[in-house]
Design a protein that fits this description.
By secondary structure, the protein is α+β, with helices and mostly antiparallel strands. It has eleven helices and 15 strands. About 7% of the residues have low confidence.
C-alpha cells in the first residue's frame, strides 16, 4: 500500500466499514474485508447455494453444465442430487422438481409444456406426419403412437428383436413385434409434495399389419423433446416400410437423428418469424418442410425458456459423443447439407452408407 491512513479511512470498498482485521484482501487498488471479498468473488454453487469449497490442492474446483452453465460442487455428481429428466439441470435447494411415478424428476419449466398422455400427444403426432409429408416422405400406413411409462418402454425394448438403443435412458421405440403395451390413457394429477398421482394406464394390443406395429414415446417430456423423439422414431418406421434392410447403427440412428434435428430446426425457424437463415440440414434438403413450421403455431407463442429448451435439444443431438447417435448424426447431417436429403437417402438405399 505504501501509505498512512486514518483508521476510519482505511475502509472496505464493498461495505464501506473500517478494516480492523490484521488480514484483508485486495483487488486492484481496492481493499476488502476477507469476508466481503469472498462474498463478491468466491463462486457459489447454483445447487446448494453454498460457497464452492477448495479441493485438496487448495484450488476452487467446480463443474458446469455445458449448455445451461449451471455451476455446482463436484460432490453433487456423487450425492444423488436429482437432475431434470428433460433439460438435465440439477435440482437446487430453492427449486422443487415434480416426481414422476417411474422415479424420474421434471423441473417446473419443462413441466409447463410436458405431454402427459397418449390422447394429448395425438395433435403433435399429426404435425410430425405432416412434416414428413412435406418432405415427400408420407407414411401411408396408420401406425399407433402410444405414450408409456419407463418400465413399459423398457419391457417393450426387451421384447423387440430389431433396433439400437441409446443408453442409459431410452425415450422412444419403433416396434415391429406384436405385444400388449400399457399406455397412459389420462393425464395424471399433481399431488402433495410435487408428486404425480392417478397415473391411469390401459392395455393396448398391437397387431402386426406391416413392418411396424407401433411407436412408443416416454411420457412426461416437453413438447419439443417429445416431437423430436417422434420424428426420430418415425424415420425408423419409414426406413423399415420402404425396405431399407439392416443398416449399420451409425447410418440408421444417424439419419434418424438428422430428421429429429430437422424438425427441431423447423420449429425454431418458425419461432424466429422466418427472418433468419436456417442453419441445419433442413435448409438444404427441401423447402417443403414448411407444414411443420405453420402448424407449430397451434401450440401458441412459446416462452423464452421453451425457445432455449429447443436450442438445448438441438445442442444435445449435435454434441452427442456416441458413435451411432453422435458420429452418425454428424456424418448424416454433413451428407444432407452437401447432397440434399433425397440423394442421401438414395445413396443409403444403394450402398448402406452415407455419401461423402
Amino acid at each position: 500500500m505504501g501509505g498512512f491512513w486514518h483508521p476510519e479511512c482505511f475502509s472496505c470498498h464493498a461495505c464501506k466499514l473500517p478494516i480492523t482485521d490484521y488480514e484483508f484482501s485486495m483487488s486492484g487498488n481496492r481493499r476488502y474485508h476477507k469476508s466481503c471479498y469472498k462474498e463478491l468473488h468466491h463462486p457459489r454453487c447454483d445447487v446448494c447455494k453454498n460457497f464452492i469449497p477448495p479441493n485438496s490442492a487448495g484450488l476452487i474446483e467446480y463443474r458446469a453444465h455445458p449448455f445451461w452453465l449451471q455451476k455446482y460442487c463436484p460432490s453433487h455428481e456423487r450425492d444423488g442430487t436429482p437432475r431434470c429428466c428433460s433439460c438435465q439441470r440439477m435440482e437446487s435447494v430453492d427449486a422443487k422438481y415434480l416426481l414422476l411415478d417411474d422415479g424420474r424428476k421434471l423441473c417446473l419449466e419443462c413441466l409447463d409444456s410436458a405431454i402427459m398422455d397418449t390422447h394429448e400427444c395425438q395433435p403433435l403426432y399429426v404435425e410430425i406426419q405432416e412434416f414428413y409429408e412435406g418432405l415427400h416422405m408420407k407414411i401411408e400406413q396408420q401406425i399407433p403412437m402410444l405414450l408409456v411409462e419407463r418400465q413399459a418402454l423398457n419391457e417393450a425394448m426387451e421384447g423387440e428383436k430389431n433396433g439400437h438403443h441409446h443408453l442409459p435412458e431410452t425415450r422412444g421405440l419403433c416396434l415391429s413385434e406384436e405385444q400388449t403395451i400399457p399406455t397412459i390413457s389420462r393425464r395424471p394429477r399433481i399431488g402433495a409434495g410435487y408428486q404425480l398421482i392417478d397415473v391411469i394406464t390401459e392395455p393396448f394390443r398391437l397387431i402386426r399389419h406391416c413392418e411396424v406395429t407401433a411407436i412408443l414415446v416416454l411420457y412426461g417430456l416437453p413438447r419439443l423433446l417429445t416431437g423430436s423423439i417422434l420424428a426420430h422414431e418415425m424415420m425408423h418406421a419409414w426406413l423399415r416400410l420402404k425396405g431399407y434392410g439392416n443398416l449399420r447403427p451409425e447410418v440408421e440412428e444417424g439419419i434418424c437423428q438428422v430428421l429429429a434435428h430437422m424438425w427441431l430446426d423447423s420449429e425454431m425457424y418458425a419461432d424466429s418469424g422466418n427472418d433468419g437463415a436456417s442453419s441445419s440440414s433442413s435448409s438444404s434438403s427441401s423447402s417443403s418442410s414448411s407444414p411443420s413450421s405453420s402448424s407449430s403455431s397451434k401450440k401458441g407463442k412459446r416462452s423464452d425458456f421453451e425457445k432455449k429448451l429447443g436450442k438445448y435439444f438441438k445442442h444435445q443431438i449435435e454434441s452427442d459423443s456416441s458413435s451411432a447417435y453422435g458420429d452418425g448424426f454428424r456424418q448424416g447431417n454433413q451428407a444432407v447439407l452437401k447432397y440434399g436429403l433425397r440423394r442421401t437417402l438414395d445413396h443409403i438405399r444403394m450402398t448402406g452408407s452415407f455419401p461423402y
